[in-house]
Amino acid sequence: PVRFAGRDFLTLRDFNRSEIEHLLWSSLCLKSRIKENGEDYRPLLGKSIGMIFQKRSTRTRLSTETGMTLLGGHAAFLGPSDVHLGVNETIKDSARVLSGMVDLILGRVYDHQDITDLADEASVPVINGLSDLYHPLQILADFVTLQEHFGFLQGLKIAWVGDGNNILHSLMYGCAKLGIELSVATPLGYEPDKEVTQYAISLASRNKTNFNLTQNPFDAVYRADVIVTDTWISMGQEEEKIKRLNDFSAFQIDRKMLREANGNWVFMHCLPRKPEEVTDDVFYSKNSLVWQEAENRKWSVMAVMLNLLKHYEPKLPRPLF
Ligand code: CP
Ligand code: NVA
């Protein structure tokens, strides 16, 4: 049996395969009940979430606010210029104050240590809404989207072409835990974090799942079903822009690169997208799942909030992942 109540959601590393699958199943079920069937389902009536953002956001903010409202609760947004945290008040004090008023906290931070400190001091569950190291909510939404599109996850080959960043780290854990093959191409010097990589390699080998790192995007994309990228310049790296554009110049995803992929390839991107990492004829093609992926941020964060506050038993039959 899976148990989420009272836990934090900081990284997929803390969750096992059946727990991650339970969150995917919950997401699909909430989408079916509320979106497709128009059910009025408000299990979080009277509950609230405090959202602390040190960086910009469109999707994470909107999915959490509208998702919480749909479930009957209230979301309070505290942007970088609203909140005392880190400026006038310590993380420790902020965590204690928020814990007295809300039932959940979501934080988007620069340093991953800030979200773990927040979680250590808060007496309510804390959700990572992106840190420099991880973005677990994004990968849940990505897997929900792939499950909807293909009807399964195991047996897919995913290729990452781009930066060794927070999104990739969460994808590495997610694939290794769920037994999905992952091939990663990053330019020299932009590899994923060493410790995260070692952990992902050991998980993947325990699950007899292929996990491969290269500097050649064409090798990574070879026979892939899913091609994923992200910006080359993450929030906080703006001053490295010129160097990065140059170092990543061979990594733009285009039709030529995708000739290596399986005929039924799909493209994914967590957004926001800049034109340099993927050409328009891929990004806006019928093989691009990016809008569905963005929408699924809502159903997946709803599943996380609901499970952390109350156990949710999905009503749909359990999908084969
Ligand atoms: N993908 C994602 O997290 O987008 P936002 O930065 O808009 O929240
Ligand atoms: N890697 C990007 C993801 C944005 C959703 C960043 O951290 O800025």
Describe it.
This protein has 321 residues and is an alpha/beta fold. It folds into two domains: 12-134 and 297-309, Rossmann fold; 138-293, Rossmann fold, CATH 3.40.50.1370. It has twelve helices and nine strands. It has helices spanning 17-36, 59-70, 91-99, 112-121, 136-150, 166-178, 194-206, 217-221, 241-247, 255-258, 280-283, 290-309, and strands spanning 48-53, 74-78, 104-108, 126-128, 157-161, 181-185, 211-214, 226-229, 266-269. A five-stranded parallel β-sheet has the order 7-6-5-8-9. A four-stranded parallel β-sheet has the order 2-1-3-4, with helices on both faces. α2 (59-70) packs across α12 (290-309), α5 packs across α12 (290-309) and α6 runs parallel beside α7. The longest helix has 20 residues, at 17-36. It is globular. The chain starts with 16 loop residues before the first helix and ends in a 12-residue tail after the last helix. The relative contact order is 0.17. It binds phosphoric acid mono(formamide)ester (CP) and norvaline.
Topology:
Layout: H1 17-36, E1 48-53, H2 59-70, E2 74-78, H3 91-99, E3 104-108, H4 112-121, E4 126-128, H5 136-150, E5 157-161, H6 166-178, E6 181-185, H7 194-206, E7 211-214, H8 217-221, E8 226-229, H9 241-247, H10 255-258, E9 266-269, H11 280-283, H12 290-309
Parallel strand pairs: 1-2, 1-3, 3-4, 5-6, 5-8, 6-7, 8-9
Helix pairs in contact: 1-5, 1-12, 2-12, 3-4, 5-6, 5-12, 6-7
The structure holds phosphoric acid mono(formamide)ester and norvaline.
